[in-house]
Structure formats: structure tokens, C-alpha cells
Design brief:
Helix content: 55-70%
Structural class: mainly alpha
Order of helices and strands: HHHHHEEHHHHHHEHE
Largest sheet: 2 strands, antiparallel
Strand order of the largest sheet: 1-2
Number of helices: 12
Distance between the termini: 59 Å
Strand content: under 5%
């Protein structure tokens, strides 16, 4: 758009050497000149690493040592790896390949690195290992691929003009269509997540205000649990974007446990005599269901799942104050007595 404005201004007689055109050229050229940083950021999100790593990889490729080497220097020798001094400004494929290689190494190192050392050493070791690899192999390979595609389209435009134009437009339109479809799917998923989150928060707030010694509150409790069960079951069957498919298993597990919780609570209160054991088992299933929902939330947010999010189901809990435990904020209420027999871990 900026370039179009520049062409329009110069068409009205403004010199292309004027300060106005110089400034506008800088504005119009900047996104293309610094394209590697934009691509690095987007690629990092796609490969599930911190965006700053993608920007740093682009910065390495754009570093002046490689971008503008001293006269006569065409490359550098890093042990057995030969690193060519290429100009990667405006490039796409070199950055994508480089971020991809970095992500593979980073995920492996971060997985095996002690938790308290990850923040310092996972990224550092990943760069030490991958920088020579993507500078010596991945980035040049991406550069050659880009040159090959450019040469192919140049030849097509020179020899088969209309066909090349049609092919180029088809590629652009298909890419735009795919991008639009992805954006629509992501927007729909985000809306579903927000709706589900708000519903569950409202349901928990309602539960926390109940006095289960009153029959009306018991009826409302069972109704809320039935609603939560239906909501979780429906949400567990959605088709999330590819990058969020990891939530399906936790949601399915949460749905199973919430279904059991609702069933046991109905059994506890709708029998002729209040069944304390059924209520206790229902409470355990409810707690586990909510834990798996939190785990799905960590996955959606891209956060690490805390080690404290362990789940254990107990068949019986001899606790006369199950609802007091539920309504309290005491963290110890999530743990069953040690002498309680375990059913499922």
C-alpha cells in the first residue's frame, strides 16, 4: 500500500529524490527488510517455543557479520561446519527452517533439564547446538529453495505469461483461503473456550453459595452438577485447531469423572437414606474432573503443567463433613485420608 502511495505521489511530479519519498520508502521497505523477524515470531508460535527465540534466530541470521561481511570474506569455518555469509534480509524459508530445527532441540533439552535450571540453560544450550547447524545448513538450504522458486516463476512469466499469472494467483488465493479458514476456526475455538470457562466459573460460584442442609439447596446442587456434566461432555467433543488437540484427552477424562460425580451425588441424595459413601466418592470424582479441566487450561495457555496436579480416586472416604470440605478453600481438602483404599490412580 505504501509503495502504491509513493508511485502515486511521484506521478504527480514529486521527485523520487525528495526527503518525503525517502521517508516513505523507509516506511514501505521496513516490513520487507525485517521480514525475518516477523517470520521468526510467527514460526516460534507455530513450533510452540517462546516467540523471543524466533526473534533471536532471525537476529542471528541478520547479524552484520553475515549480512555485510568484510571485503573478500564469503564465509566462516565453525569446526567442520562451513557457514556461508549470506544476506537473509527479506527472506522467509531460511528463518522457518532455522526455527524448526531449534524447536526440536529445545523441546528435547527442556524436557530433560532440571526444572530450576531450565530458564537459564535450556535456551542457551539449544542455541549453542543449533546455531552452527541452521547457519551452515538450514538457512542456506532455505535460501537456495527461495532462489529456485524465484527463478522458476521468472522463467514461467518470461515464457508462459498468462499461465504463470494464473498459477501465481491460484497459489495466493489458496493460501489466503487456508489462512482465512484457520483464523475462523481459531476464533470459533476461542469463543467456545471463553463460553466454557465462564460457565464453569459461574457454576462453581453457585455451588459455593449453597447450604446443603436445605433440601432446596440439594436440588439446586444436583441441577448444577447435571449442567456441568452436560457442558463438559459437549466441550470434550469439539474439534479444536491442530495446535490444541492435546486438550481432547484431558477433557474426555474430565467428562468421565464429572459424569460419575453427578451419578454418585444423585445416588447419595435420592436414596431413601442419605448414602455417605456415595457422596464421598462423588466428591472425589468431582475434584479429579476439575483437575483435568485445569490441565486442559494449562495446555490451551501453553503453560507447563504443575507437578502438583496429580489425580487419585478413592472408593470410600469416611468423612462426615464432605460438603464443608468442598465449600472451604483449604487446599488439604483435595487429599483423602492416607488409610483410605485407592481405586484408580
Amino acid at each position: 500500500m505504501i509503495k502504491g502511495i509513493i508511485s502515486l505521489i511521484t506521478a504527480f511530479g514529486v521527485s523520487d529524490k525528495s526527503d518525503i519519498i525517502t521517508v516513505l520508502n523507509a516506511v514501505g521497505d521496513a516490513p520487507f527488510y525485517f521480514m525475518p523477524f516477523i517470520i521468526g515470531y510467527a514460526a516460534a508460535k507455530r513450533f510452540k517455543i517462546k516467540e523471543i527465540f524466533g526473534i533471536m534466530i532471525a537476529g542471528i541470521l541478520m547479524y552484520s557479520t553475515f549480512l555485510s561481511p568484510a571485503e573478500g570474506i564469503t564465509g566462516y569455518q565453525f569446526g567442520p561446519i562451513s557457514i556461508p555469509a549470506y544476506n537473509y534480509k527479506g527472506s522467509i524459508f531460511p528463518v522457518i527452517l532455522s526455527v524448526w530445527i531449534f524447536s526440536i532441540v529445545f523441546h528435547f533439552i527442556d524436557k530433560h533439564m532440571p526444572k530450576n535450571l531450565r530458564i537459564v540453560f535450556s535456551g542457551a544450550f539449544s542455541f549453542l547446538i543449533t546455531a552452527p547447524l541452521f547457519l551452515g545448513f538450514a538457512a542456506p538450504l532455505g535460501n537456495w529453495a527461495a532462489i529456485g522458486m524465484t527463478s522458476t516463476f521468472s522463467w514461467l512469466f518470461a515464457n508462459t505469461g498468462p499461465l504463470a499469472g494464473a498459477l501465481f494467483c491460484a497459489l495466493c488465493l489458496s493460501g489466503c483461503q487456508k489462512s482465512n479458514e484457520d483464523e475462523v476456526a481459531l476464533a470459533s475455538f476461542s469463543s467456545s473456550v471463553e463460553d466454557f470457562t465462564n460457565y464453569m466459573k459461574d457454576a462453581e460460584e453457585k455451588i459455593n453459595t449453597l447450604d446443603v442442609s436445605q433440601k432446596e439447596s440439594v436440588d439446586e446442587l444436583l441441577s448444577i452438577l447435571d449442567g456441568m456434566n452436560d457442558k463438559i461432555a459437549a466441550f470434550s467433543k469439539i474439534a479444536p485447531p491442530t495446535q490444541y488437540t492435546g486438550i481432547l484427552e484431558p477433557l474426555e477424562t474430565a467428562s468421565d469423572h464429572m459424569s460419575s460425580a453427578a451419578s454418585y451425588f444423585h445416588s447419595a441424595y435420592e436414596s431413601e437414606v442419605y448414602n455417605e459413601n456415595d457422596a464421598s466418592v462423588a466428591y472425589q470424582h468431582y475434584q479429579i474432573s476439575m483437575k483435568w479441566i485445569r490441565i486442559a487450561g494449562y495446555i490451551i495457555a501453553g503453560d507447563e503443567i504443575p507437578e502438583s496436579e496429580h489425580v487419585t480416586v478413592y472408593e470410600e472416604v469416611n468423612d462426615n463433613h464432605i460438603f464443608n470440605k468442598w465449600l472451604s478453600e483449604d487446599e488439604d481438602s483435595e487429599s483423602a485420608p492416607e488409610d483410605t483404599p485407592e481405586a484408580v490412580e
